[in-house]
Amino acid sequence: MPFVTNRVLARLGALKFPAPAWALALGLGLGGAAHAQPTPITNSTPAPVTTVAHPAAQIAPIGSFILHGRVVGSPVYRGHARISQSGALVTLVRAAGDEAEQTLLGRALARDHWVFPSGDAVGPAGERRWGTVTASRLNLRSGPGGNNPTRGQAIRGSKLLVVGESGPWLEILNRDGRRLWTHGGYVDVKSYAASGAAEVELIADTRGPWSVHFSGTTPLVVERFEETVNELILLGMGLYASQEVWDLRSVQGVKVRGILDSAEEDVIEAFGSRRDLSEDADVEGFLDDLGLSDAQRAILKGAIDSTGSDARDELGQMILTYWEAERGDRVLERMILSGHSVGSGVWGDENGSFSFQLLPKLNEAFPKAAAQVEDLMIAGCYSSSLRQVDRFRGWFPNLRSFWAYGDSAPGSWTGATIHNALWEEASRGHEPGLVSRVLARGTRKGDNVATWNDVLGYEADGPLRPLATISAELDGSQDAYLKFESGEEIVEDTQRGPLRDHYRLIQEILGHPELSSSEQAGWERARDATIRLIFYETNIRVRFQEVYGPEVAAGFTALGLTAPDWATISRAEAKAAILGFKQSIDLAGAPSAEVERALYLLSKGLEALSIEVVPNEWV
Predict the structure, then answer these.
(1) What does the pLDDT look like over 199-225, one tens digit per residue?
(2) Could you tell me if 301 and 314 lie in one domain?
(3) Other beta carbons within 10 Å of 479
(4) Which of 205, 329, 191 is nearest to 257 (CA)?
(5) Based on the domain organization, do 339 and 473 belong to the same domain?
(6) What is the DSSP letter of 433?
(7) Within 10 A of 43 (CB to CB), how many other CB atoms are there?
(8) Domain check: are 551 and 580 in the same one?
(9) What is the pLDDT of residue 150?
(10) Residues 248 and 359 reside in one and the same domain
């Protein structure tokens, strides 16, 4: 099959037809085993209803149209309703209750998923022929026969409306309403009776967005139906995260809330005020402006206090985004967390680190917002495993799909925008089974993609290996690790070699669902030390000298010694210099404050490579 980028595999659920046409929705019928499947959300029986009618001219133009509406006084309608067209009227049949007196105002938009009929049916009256794709990827051609050029593709499980046939070839309507052809040997076709009723039904959805399905066609495909259906949140910690936002906006045409590094470290603009979240007074003022409960305030104050420098601005923007979603001012439906990663958070080269542990705090403070999140992408290295999926599913109760990386991920300029686009278009709509690692096949680092959805379960590059096997291999690679730790060996290639292999084994054992909590903490420390050791010559020693060189030099001077230039000496030489410094301290007696500080930085930093002294941003 040909290489696929950005919009080729897009919107397998989106149909736009010129009038006249039947209302169509494209969905999935995927099967297969899944890991720890959640209980699916089912439609409940509608409550007693009332009926409100409006002239059709107020809501839609003549011909095919898509009804797009809001309930006056409420940004998201949470109830049962039915919209139907009869003559010159569009009728909203709505659940009785407090919202019964609200009226629905709408406008026609050329949106992706819902087209209302106003003319003759496509195909035989009263019958619809839907075909389910059985191939992994199926070419859609301009005409019957393999010699015709390919005009699109559909992946396994996609639903295609069959409108004609010629021998073994089927004529179908694709997502853009074009008539295309495909071989019937890869399509399981079934016929369904359809009333053709021009109506949809809004089903109660505790997650916030409207849920909609056609009442007269089969299969019934659920879809969100509100103004921000395609919007997504992108938290970008990387240096070029703005490029990822631009690509999604300009190429994909998606409304994106970009949460990016502020011009000033830890400073945000909120409610007309400039807030420096490194200052306690501004933190208190920011929380005052939000009008929070005492419990919410305590949670968020703790989250801000626990976040290091140059990441509080992004956290502040995330808090504002969650706050708006909690109030109903936006729908926090899809989210990308982008940056460097080892599985514990995302960070940037010249920016701070956003820990994943901030997410459960945000979710606790704003539970309604957390319940809206259905599709999550972690655009960072070593961000996916069965254990990681279970963790994020615990944090986001209605998560339906997850895209991340079991190994290294592409950077902003080396393929990230392509992967972002593939994920965005697969997660658009209400078919989580589309979010599959097969979409990235053939792209740079596409083999490293790992996905989970509540249709197919967890998909990764290879089966889960026994914990004992991984442990044994780690024991076998320990000697190689010690040679690099001592400085006997030097990393010549940060992406390949025995130390990188050892690091991959650590990541593999950390992602294993059978790893005990007591063992996890130890392996996390080993992970953090090993990745710093991999980048010791290229990054760590240079940054250590830049940031801590003067403080360490002061400690050496207090003992009458001269500190080396840590940026230029090898790890073996650095360890020898640290040992000599410790011996000088023992001979000198009680150390001064300058000496103690230098000893702490050298011991925790260059020796132990601990995160307290060597932050993630240096990796």
Answers:
(1) 333 333 333 333 333 333 322 222 333
(2) yes
(3) 10
(4) 329
(5) no
(6) G
(7) 14
(8) yes
(9) 82
(10) yes
